[in-house]
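Person: Please comment on this record:
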Amino acid sequence: MNITKDDLDDLNAVVSVKIVEEDYLQRVEEVLKDYKKKAKLDGFRPGMVPMGIIKKLYYKPILADEINKIVSESLMNYIRDEKLRILGEPLPHIDNEKQIDFDRDSEFEFSFDLGLVPDFSLNISLKDKIAFYIIKVEEPAVEEYLGDIRKKLGEFIPVEKVTGDELVKGNLKPADHNDELPEEMISVEDTGFSIKVINDDSVKKLFIDAKPGDQIVFDVRKAFPNETDLAGLFKTDKTKTADINGLFQIDIKEVLKFEDHPVDQALFDKTFGEGIVKSETEFREKLIEELRRNYEYESNYRFASDAKKYLINKAKLTLPVEFLKRWLLATNEKLTAEQLEQEFNDYNEEFQWQLIKDQLIRENEISVSDEELFEFAVQMARNQFYQYGLYNVQDEHIVEYARGQLNRKDEARRLRDQKYEERVMKFMKESVKLDKKEVTREKFRKLFEK
């Protein structure tokens, strides 16, 4: 076997693998012998098929398969042994037009294009300056956060009458005879709707001051021209509402108004767990802590975005563009050449960031242990529950959820990549000069509009 590398330029190379008979013959013969032992053909006992027939039937596909394995193994070993840093994966040489003839040839040559990682240095130091935004926790934000929690934990309560935005519940039936109406829609028990959803003002007025026990007759099509709303009212599919029209009567059983949860001990317990918070002052302090944590996450997210851009600009990497385009098209069946041209700048930037990140990890010996990964998975699981307003989920449930995430290979890989990126950004915050800027939440969010 002979392997050679031809450097086309600093970013592209061609590796050729030449296979001779002694490289593959023994392997092919071993596979043929194994086939002979297992072969079952009419007229022969198992394992007694003559080798001549086995070769005639299987020699060519076995030869092709074994040569492909040898070439793949040899190429990967060569890349590893020569410590070649490549982008993507080797691709068949673009100009290789020679046809392989397994019937006549005993020597075979295969050529592969490689995209090479360019040499670069970063030299991170305190001379590098990157903005870090500190978001102020202001009273309006605390009130908004409190309002969100109260709304999330609020409920509908009975009230005496309709004033404008209540929920009306009752039994619905036609006010006049309608032969075209499906039988199951002649009477709908325990249905309901919000007064705010009614589309027609004249219909809305019919319900103002209505009380439980009242009967209101209204035109359903004027009230609910939207098929989805109408289907909800009649507890059916919107494909079945075409024949619903005319006057209907609702016998009102309940008038309900949504009330935000009062600021009381029950709210404190539902939010943070029983007995953890015992006063409104403590509750607000907890909310401020939560906001600070959320803002810190947003600040770090912005820093990571700014640091990536800074490092990409500093590294000034040039990549083997044409090779990368070929590789992306070869490995993404759904990606078209037109889409690739439109999106390649994003791909190119991501390739550059991955190279920069890998170099920072390697040069600064950044690592993530299994224990650290597990702790990170637990933290991410807890944050996920928080996003849904579940602040008092028991630790054993969070731990069980995190373990489940790590048991899935793709999810475990994603979490490990996230943790490595977090470590890289921690290194950056400790190694560069942070240009700290205190801003309001409104001003911070406007930064993302630029």
